[in-house]
Amino acid sequence: MKKAIFLFDYTGIMAKPWADAGYLCYCFDAQHKEGVHRFGNIIQVGMWLDDDLSKIENITGKDISFIFGFPECTDLAVSGAAHFEKKRNKNPNFQNDAMKLVRLVDAIGDHFDCPWALENPISVISTLWRKPNYIFHPYEYGGYLLFDDYHPLYPDYIKPQDAYPKKTCIWSGNGFIMPEKKPVPILTGYSDQHKKLGGKSLKTKNIRSATPRGFAKAVFEANNKL
Q: N or C: which terminus of the chain has fewer CB atoms within 10 Å of its end residue's CB?
């Protein structure tokens, strides 16, 4: 059985197409119950990630086909720039600390020598590391979902077929293939769903950071080697 790793992945949305196709998918996130718990082809791993890559390899083994990561964006996204000065006064290294998780995805991809990518909104990653390889909006991949689609986890917040704009960046390496776009119509301007998703609660953070399902399916179709 081929295997894939998904880092900082609470919802498992990016992993689902891989799991449905027969891959064994390891979803690492500190919000998962501590330990290793299998649900079909998805294995939830509740642990904090650090530079000791042997901890991951001891769980997954060495033969990994694909890696995707969602490092925490709170201290990096330019949408939160108004708070950067206050955060810097409390911790001058707050963004360097956040960048450790970004670079960890890169390091894990190189460690397993397989295609990898990570997702973040427009952020200071571009200046602290490098510019993204790709930029997309969720609606540009909505065509991978059915016309009568609705979101299985957050239908009151996320539009059917991911029909909303949100400029999203992808950093990638080791032969990751950015999938072909299949856009669906949207209203111009910003997504009205974000009016419902303000605040600092863990719930709204999880919804805001949920992977667009159309993009997840497109990534699988472009990168799976089964």
A: N
**Tens digit of pLDDT for each residue in 167-224?**
999 999 999 999 999 999 986 655 555 555 555 565 555 566 678 999 999 999 999 9
Q: Kindly report the three-state secondary structure assignment for every residue of the chain.
A: CCEEEEECCCCCCCCHHHHHCCCEEEEECCCCCEEEEEECCEEEEECCCCCCCHHHHHHHCCCCCEEEECCCCCCCEHHHHHHHHHHHHHCCCHHHHHHHHHHHHHHHHHHHCCCEEEEEECECHHHHCCCCCEEECHHHHHHHCCCCCCCCCCCCCCCHHHCCCCCEEEEEECCCCCCCCCCCCCCCCCCHHHHHCCCCCHHHHHHHCCCCHHHHHHHHHHHCCC
Record the pTM: 0.89
